[in-house]
């Protein structure tokens, strides 16, 4: 298994991911607990796919 080194690209992608989650939660899903939970899980899974396919080369 390949070891991931903390590069600027990896750190920037995690920061962007956190900003997207925080913004969506505050703007659209503030009072909807279950929808918020499922949406956050969905965003996380999409982020993982993008991270392992494109960023983590």
Descriptive account of the structure:
The radius of gyration is 13 Å and the shape is elongated. It has 57 residues and is mostly helical. It has helices at residues 8-27, 33-55. 75% of the residues lie in helices and 0% in strands. It has a domain at 28-57.
Distinct helical segment count: 2
Describe the biggest sheet? none
Shape summary = elongated
Q: Helix coverage percent of residues?
A: over 70%
Radius of gyration: 13 Å
Mean pLDDT equals 80
Protein topology:
Elements: H1 8-27, H2 33-55
Keywords:
single chain; 57 residues; mainly alpha; 2 helices; elongated
Task: Describe the structure in brief.
The chain is mainly α and 57 residues long.
